[in-house]
From TrEMBL:
SUPFAM superfamilies reported in the protein's UniProt record: Cytochrome P450
Keyword terms, alphabetized: Heme, Iron, Metal-binding, Monooxygenase, Oxidoreductase
Listed name of the protein: Cytochrome P450
Family: Belongs to the cytochrome P450 family.
Organism: Myceligenerans salitolerans
Pfam families: p450 (PF00067)
Top-rank taxon: Bacteria
Amino acid sequence: MTLDPTGQDLHGEIAAVRQAGPVVPVRLPGGLLAWMVTDHRAIIGLLTDDRVSKDVRHWAAMNTGQVPAGWPLMPWVVGSGMFTAGGAEHRRLRRLAAPAFTGHRTGALAPMIEQIVADTLDDVTTHLDQDRTVDLREKFCFPIPIKTIGALLGVDDDLFDAIKSGANALFDTAVTPEEFAGRFAGLNAAIAELVTRKRHRPGTDLTSALIRARQHGDRYSDEEILETARVVVVAGYETTVNLLDQAIVALLTHPQHLAAAQAGHITWDDVIDETLRHQSPAANLPLRYAVEDIELAGTTIRGGEAILVSFAGAGRDPRIHEHPDKFDPTRTGKTHLGFGYGSHRCLGAPLAILEAKIALPALFDRFRDLTLAEAPEAIPANPGFITNGHARVPVRLS
């Protein structure tokens, strides 16, 4: 099976893969092969297996020159940061960054996020079309995470456009190699400029903290600082955009659950957890590699072969969830892998949840007459199979 690089039917493809088995070979862009894993239990086993690594040096296709230059997934598999490191090196990089993401530090950001949400809601009303419609993905779901991450990292306003364009290109698996190269170069240049500015004018932001980070005589190299800042930007905004996007669409298409949340019959945590299960913001995350031959859910994966983990598939595994395709925040079992699992679980997960817990009730308290301006089935998906969101979230204020 060849995955659609535009990602317009993520769950349809996942269902087709699952029907063929829990671990199935698929073709990625460029015709490269990988094993796609959709089974929740198999993914848990995979992500806790020392014989599986994110270190690209274990990928036979890369070592034998089969990966073409300009391959759109290349930044997902090469680099010097936490996302692509394995084993002891990953633990070292994560240990240096972890102090910036403690529960105390995350909780202290709540007043800042509340102000960002309030300002964003004020701005939404200035962008209404003549028929009182507005795209909430662009005017609400996007500004809140990017401004939060920007404030966290100390990003100046003049760098935002390049960061947004480059980050979006990373998730668009249908982008041309030429367009990708330009936008990714712009992202890297903006991150490099950010780090340069913080070296000259350090502050209390995360970028300055990464530059200063040191434990037991160890510290980040210059390249590791750039890579870590880029990972924080890219992972910290796109997944939260999609979490807000999917929660809004789910609640507007299930008004009984929206009413229950507003009345306090279910919690916003219930809504957020069910959204993360039902529509995992990170859908199919590349790549991992078998360091040696392994058996996974009855399938032999040879050493050197690539593995694509489907977190969206895990969320709808029928062996774990009853009626898995149904959005139901009242269900008792909302187990999900929306932020990954194991040693590579997202460090910024508590921050994303905090943003959603502040933003969602504020949106629906402010605009109690929101309705979708288009039929949900007519709204296209955001391009690419890596993340899971909509191209737009058009709503109308009556």
